């Protein structure tokens, strides 16, 4: 959100902090910030360090990408949460009766 580029690694196992971060970056269209292994991660980091214009480009576009993403679609997320609460309530009522 603050415009700093984030790099992560796609993990082998789907449940991890890396997987969560990779999913966010992928949703934002920033696949180029996801490394496939430690060597690739070092290469991505080196490219950013050696090409500050890449950092500037990522900074310039990251906020707009996030604003346009499903992560900041508060209306849709609220509707999903309300639906989940409704389903839990119906399950509770069905179990009690």
Topology:
Blueprint: E1 8-9, H1 17-27, E2 34-35, H2 38-50, H3 52-67, H4 74-96
Parallel strand pairs: 1-2
Helix pairs in contact: 2-3
Brief summary of the model shown:
By secondary structure, the chain is mostly helical.
Q: Would you kindly provide a written description of the structure presented here, covering whatever features stand out?
A:
- The protein is mainly alpha-helical.
- The chain contains 4 helices and 2 strands; from the N terminus they run βαβααα.
- It has helices at residues 17-27, 38-50, 52-67, 74-96; strands spanning 8-9, 34-35.
- Strands 1-2 form a two-stranded parallel ribbon.
- Helix 2 (38-50) crosses helix 3 (52-67).
| Outline type | elongated
Radius of gyration equals 19 Å
The overall average pLDDT, rounded, is 89
Our count of helices gives: 4
What is the succession of H and E elements? EHEHHH
Tell me the span between the first and last alpha carbons: 47 Å
> Considering DSSP H and I runs of 4 or more, what fraction of the residues is helical?
55-70%
Query: Which strand order spans the largest sheet, edge to edge or round the barrel?
Result: 1-2
Helix/strand class: mainly alpha
Q: How many strand elements? A: 2
Poorly predicted tracts of residues:
none
DSSP strand content: under 5%
Major sheet description: 2 strands, parallel
Question: Which key terms come to mind for this protein?
Answer:
mainly alpha, single chain, 97 residues, 65% helix, 2 strands, two-stranded parallel ribbon
């Amino acid at each position: 959100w603050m415009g700093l580029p984030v790099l992560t690694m796609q993990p082998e196992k789907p449940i991890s902090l890396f997987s969560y971060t990779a999913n966010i970056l992928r949703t934002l269209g920033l696949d180029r910030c996801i490394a496939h292994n430690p060597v690739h991660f070092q290469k991505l980091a080196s490219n950013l360090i050696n090409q500050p214009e890449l950092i500037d480009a990522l900074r310039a576009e990251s906020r707009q990408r996030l604003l346009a993403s499903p992560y900041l679609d508060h209306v849709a997320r609220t509707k999903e949460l309300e639906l989940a609460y409704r389903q839990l309530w119906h399950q509770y009522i069905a179990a009690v009766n």
